[in-house]
Write a structure and sequence with these properties.
Blueprint: E1 4-8, E2 13-17, H1 27-40, E3 42-45, H2 52-59, H3 69-72, E4 85-88, H4 102-107, E5 124-133, E6 145-149, H5 150-155, H6 159-165, E7 169-172, H7 174-180, H8 188-193, E8 197-200, E9 202-204, E10 211-213, E11 219-222, H9 227-241, E12 247-250, E13 257-261, E14 265-269, E15 279-286
Parallel strand pairs: 2-3
Antiparallel strand pairs: 1-2, 3-13, 4-15, 5-13, 5-15, 6-12, 6-14, 7-8, 7-11, 9-10
């Protein structure tokens, strides 16, 4: 097995060739992917044809898999494997969702810069998204996904700012981020199931050993600060971290499999033609402990 890695864009994303992710990959291949993740944060694999089971089995080689909020809700699902997230605009019968559909309005929060599941006490590590069907171009965007390198963003901060934020803790709340786009229609039982969680603002990545900002639209306020001051700081840091020089914009093709490390990136989806099917499938690996137990 021989793989090749070609940097893309701003040098923190890379295209990987030489692997068929639907087949058997030995331990050396998994280790090579891990090394590439530590180096680049975002990896792109083109022309992959994966069933949901194959995506599940490949992702599980990197850690236990998350069951996301949507899959944890009662009722019928379009996809049969709960660890495979349904990142689509399709309902349970494969029909395009109405613009006022609750599930669609909830998912619009993903167009804010965020880190997946940072609102969980033990957050996630890798996200893996596989493109099954894509809509045609639209005047508002083609459903691209943008990624921001939080290591480079941290490195570019003044030393005084680094020292001032090193030990800060931020409360993350999924219902805060949804309220930012005007969607607040959640049953109390779901709110009780996902209470806010505190996370470190500055982390040290265990693979690269680089310091990184841990930011997300889920970040509501800085613990121990007046709420307004904390929110202004988070807005300033997010604006800094998502400057063009820190961002890679992925233009999807059917068959793409993109892996990103949530510990050192933020990402957001872009608009697309909501009258046509867009079908992506996601698997996400879980971390082993709280960020509060880490040293910055």
């Amino acid at each position: 097995m021989s793989i090749a890695i070609r940097p893309l864009g701003n040098q923190f994303a890379a295209e990987v060739t030489g692997l068929d992710l639907s087949g058997a990959i030995d331990a050396a291949g998994i280790a090579a992917i891990w090394r590439a993740i530590d180096d680049f944060c975002v990896l792109v694999f083109r022309d992959q044809s994966l069933s949901d089971r194959q995506l599940h089995d490949f992702a599980a080689r990197f850690g236990p898999l998350e069951i996301g909020r949507a899959a944890a809700r009662p009722g019928r699902r379009r996809l049969s494997i709960p660890q495979i997230g349904d990142i689509s605009n399709l309902d349970e019968d494969n029909r395009v969702r109405d613009l006022f559909d609750r599930r669609r309005l909830d998912s619009l929060g993903n167009r804010l810069w965020h880190t997946d599941a940072s609102y969980m006490p033990v957050p996630v590590v890798l996200g893996m998204l596989h493109a099954v069907a894509l809509p045609p171009p639209s005047p508002f965007g083609n459903g691209e996904t943008e990624f921001a390198d939080m290591r480079a963003a941290y490195d570019a901060l003044p030393d005084a700012t680094k020292a001032a934020i090193n030990d800060l803790v931020v409360e993350h709340d999924v219902f805060w981020s949804r309220a930012l786009v005007g969607f607040t229609d959640f049953p109390q039982a779901e709110k009780d199931q996902y209470p806010p969680s505190p996370q470190r603002l500055v982390r040290t990545h265990p693979g690269s050993k680089r310091k990184t900002l841990y930011l997300s639209a889920h970040g509501s306020h800085v613990v121990g600060w007046p709420v307004a001051d904390g929110r202004l700081l988070l807005l300033d840091l997010s604006a800094h971290a998502t400057r063009e020089r820190f961002v890679y914009r992925h233009e999807w093709r059917v068959g793409d499999l993109v892996i990103w490390d949530n510990r050192c990136t933020m990402h957001r989806g872009r608009p697309h033609d909501e009258t046509k099917a867009r079908d992506l499938r996601r698997a996400t690996t879980l971390d082993q402990g709280s960020t509060l137990s880490e040293a910055a």
